[in-house]
Amino acid sequence: MNEFEKLIEAAESICILGHTNPDGDCLGSTLGTKLYIQERYPDKKVNVYLQTANEKFRFMPGFDDIIHVPSDRKYQLCIICDCNGYDRVGDFKILAEHAENVYVVDHHIPGNQKFEKCTIIPEASSTCEVVYDLMDDSFVNKDAASCLYLGLVHDTGVFKYNCTSKHTMEIAGQLMSKGIDFGSIIDDTYYTKTYAQQQVMGRVLTESLMIMDKRCIAGWLTAKDMRFYNVTSKDIDGIVSTMRETRGVDCAVFIYEMTNQNYKVSLRSNNNMLDVAKVASHFGGGGHKMAAGCTLQGSHFDVINNVTKELAKQLDAPGFVSNSAQ
Length: 326
Ligand code: 5GP
Ligand code: MN
Prior knowledge:
The chain contains twelve helices and eleven strands. A six-stranded mixed β-sheet has the order 6-7-8-9-11-10. Strands 2-1-3-4-5 form a five-stranded parallel β-sheet. It starts with a helix and ends in an 11-residue tail after the last helix. It is globular and about 60 Å long. By secondary structure, it is an alpha/beta fold. Helices cover about 40% and strands about 20% of the residues. The protein binds guanosine-5'-monophosphate and manganese (II) ion (MN). Manganese (II) ion (MN) binds next to loops. Guanosine-5'-monophosphate (5GP) binds next to strand 10 and strand 11.
């Protein structure tokens, strides 16, 4: 038994947390872990605490039981999935602070905070991959498998990003053998969009700018735009991935205004020589080499200018070979 399983076995009460604005991997890893524990130890009390997620994930097992309000309840074990800093768990931090033990399962590049008990594998495709490897497969039921598969799908861009490995595909195969409806998981949560989402995507692409000698595509949504289309932060995942599909660009930058002049920045690299996690961490954010994010203040032009200056340190470095040159 590994340390993760020993801690689970020893705890009567367990809370599971993820990052703010939960995405597919965050939901998949938290819910998948809960369902795994419940299959293996039906008497344990396990709760998942997360902010509300997009409605498209509603059909995932366990979605309706997620608690959205933080509490000062004391759990014996707190498992944090898909982030490795208390700043990323938002208001649910209090649950981690009160817990007897904290265990972190993640695949982001570690930030400043160090955890004594953790499994953090930055090379892994997703947190679902990391957590599956800590589990005994014989207790992964169909519901848990559906959740874990969701995380693999979302963080690999449906098995195409270069974080996808042979091992990722082996896990996907193993999860498929549990009888999951993999087609619906992919279509309903990854590809299908609401009409409002399609409109916003169109708007961002139309207004976008090719900057830095066409090596970077930049797009933005102000709070006013978001009100006009009646969309929230939950509706705009996927925009930056579409932007990165532009031929020749080395990176895509998408920003949206969360509160007045306070922008969430999403960065995507298309070029192995460009590490966007470096750019994000310069501004206090983080993520992965090819996908990272941070938060910045100012007008949308200020934010894009500031990000551009930081990107230029890599794009303009001697020896950098741009995709646009190929
Ligand atoms: P996204 O652009 O999809 O929001 O995020 C891309 C990646 O960067 C994700 O793995 C996400 O967890 C990470 N990320 C996004 N924003 C932040 C941030 O503000 N801080 C940190 N540490 N990571 C972030
Ligand atoms: Mn993830």
